[in-house]
Structure formats: structure tokens, C-alpha cells
């Protein structure tokens, strides 16, 4: 199979969809891999490393997309890339279609087969291709939150860990999944007073046990969220409903009641954000103010640490890439229910129900597409 790896062009997106190790696995099995020149530069992977692994390096995005039967990316296509989508092509990447009607429309009009990393889901509910980036974003969230809390950044001027005789920052994490748990772990390591809210009491028990009570766990409901947010110095939103838009858990009015200079970091911004006032920002201009609080809503947080993120992503995507390349996407999806869950679009049809609900569209049963 011909596999294309274009350079990412989203603002400050430095990751690349495959490592030289991944290229080597594919080329030694007889597949052709086409990588756009400098695709790996932001991740400190030079073209020479891809060439040595067996890839063909091409100078333009048009050439790379044109070669690909299977296109591997990190982030969803942006408007400049829409014309490159083709009906006879499989696109394997993070799509986050529920958050973008424009991209959904472009995918359907092109007829491309879109398989989304973030909706590949195993029988036990795990999201194996989202997990590593959730780990990265979760671990970054307290770092960017701490920076934003500094007075020159517009924050309260609070040190997360405090000092002897001075209270540490109060950090509230909403959501106890992979991202939220990693955020809580790092915030605790910084010495902050950490409270984690989730609707799953069994999960809260597990966190309480694993952290020996050092992270306070609270059942998430409207009242407990309001109480926690009002008292917080830093709020980290890490709520996820696979494939669907994130629920809005922090209202504009609630933000108006927060401490002046408090910070809100929305990890869920890729899925529309879990704060009412969230809107996507970039690494160039990551924050904005709402009332007296600072919002950080960068939609590609792991892009700030691309070397780590690229290797972590390839570790989990490569087994699925190999299956698609060797079996074809339909047979690979028939043989693996987890991968089938990643199928979002095919031949102008939307086959992901939460995405269809988000945009008021009709979804096609996946069984009919794979028949």
C-alpha cells in the first residue's frame, strides 16, 4: 500500500504522524511510504532519518497527498487541506468532527474514508490512540496553568506548591480519565492542594486508594462543581465523551464568581471545550480573559512537546496502521471492533452517531458500510 505522511500545517503543530521506526516496519513489509520534506523537523527528526528507514521524501504536500492511498496525520485537516481529500483515500488521524461542522462537511463532500484516532475504542471502554496524547496534555496542564497563574501572565501570583507558612494553590481537576488523572498527579507533585471530580464513584475510590488520600476525590454534580470552582486558583477541565461534544460544566456566571486572576485550562477544547466561554487558541496566543479569570484553550497542547508526543503516538498507532495497510481498511475494521469504532466517514456517509447528533445529521449504521 502507498502510505503518505504530510507535514502538519496547523498553527504551531510540530508533531509528525510516524517515526523512522514506524517507516522501517512498513517498508520492510513491502509498503511504500512517502513523507513530505521537513515533516519531522519540528519533532527533531530530519529527512535523512526517514530516508534511511526506507521512506521516499517528496518536496510538496500535493505530491505526498497525491501518492497516498492511506494518509497518516496527527491533527485534523484544515481548510487548506480540504481539496486534497479524495474518495479513494483513507485518512487516519485525530478528527474531532463533533467540534467542527465545516470539517465534517468537507469530509462528507470529498467522500474520503475517515478513521479517527480518538474514537478507536476497546471493549473495556479504553481509548488506546487517544490515551498517550491525553497523558501528555494532562501532564502539561498544571505546567501551563502554573505559568498562567504568575502575575506577569495575568494570574493571581500564586505558587502551586506554596512555601512553608503559606498555603499552596487549590487545583481542581474536572474529570478522572487519563488526562484528568495525569493532571492531578503532576499538580500533586508540584505540591498543590488537589481536588478531583468525577461521576464514577468506583474510579474515585481507585484514585483515593492509589494516592493514599492525597488527592481529594469528590463526586461530580452541579453543586460540587460550583463549590470547587469558586474556591479554585486553577481549574483543569478534562471531560470526555468519546466522539461527542464535551458537556459545558462551567458557566459564564460561575466564572464571574471565581477568584480574580484564577486560571482555567480546558484540555477538552478539541471536542468543543467543557467551559461555556472556551474557544480554541494557539501556542502563539494561548490565553484570554473572561471576567477576571485567565482561559488557556490551546487545541493542540501536545504539539508543544512534539518529540515526546510523536514517539508516544507512533507507539500506539503503528499496529493499526499495519493492519490497515496489510488487510485494507474494510477487512481490518471487520476483524477489529475497536478499529471499526474509529470509522467516522465513508463515501459521503457519516457513520459515527455522536458526531451526527452534534450536527443534527443522520448517521449510517457501520454494519452496512462494512457489509
TrEMBL record:
One GO term of the biological process aspect: L-alanine catabolic process
| Residue ranges of domain Alanine dehydrogenase/pyridine nucleotide transhydrogenase N-terminal in the record | 4-137
The pathway this protein participates in, as annotated, is: Amino-acid degradation; L-alanine degradation via dehydrogenase pathway; NH(3) and pyruvate from L-alanine: step 1/1
Q: What is its EC number?
A: 1.4.1.1
State the Pfam families in the record. AlaDh_PNT_C (PF01262), AlaDh_PNT_N (PF05222)
Keywords of this entry: NAD, Nucleotide-binding, Oxidoreductase
Q: Where does NAD(+) bind?
A: 134, 198, 203, 220, 239-240, 267-270, 279, 298-301
Which residues constitute the catalytic centre?
96 (proton donor/acceptor), 270 (proton donor/acceptor)
Highest taxon above the source species: Bacteria
Q: Which residues form the Alanine dehydrogenase/pyridine nucleotide transhydrogenase NAD(H)-binding domain?
A: 149-297
Gene Ontology molecular function: alanine dehydrogenase activity; nucleotide binding
> Mind naming one GO cellular-component term on file for this protein?
plasma membrane
Which residues does the record give as substrate binding sites? Answer: 15, 75
Catalytic reactions on record: L-alanine + NAD(+) + H2O = pyruvate + NH4(+) + NADH + H(+)
Q: Which family does it belong to?
A: Belongs to the AlaDH/PNT family.
Q: Which NCBIfam families match?
A: alaDH (TIGR00518)
Q: What does this protein do?
A: Catalyzes the reversible reductive amination of pyruvate to L-alanine.
Q: How does it assemble?
A: Homohexamer. Trimer of dimers.
Q: What is the name attached to this protein's record?
A: Alanine dehydrogenase
Q: What is the lineage of its organism?
A: Bacteria, Bacillati, Actinomycetota, Actinomycetes, Pseudonocardiales
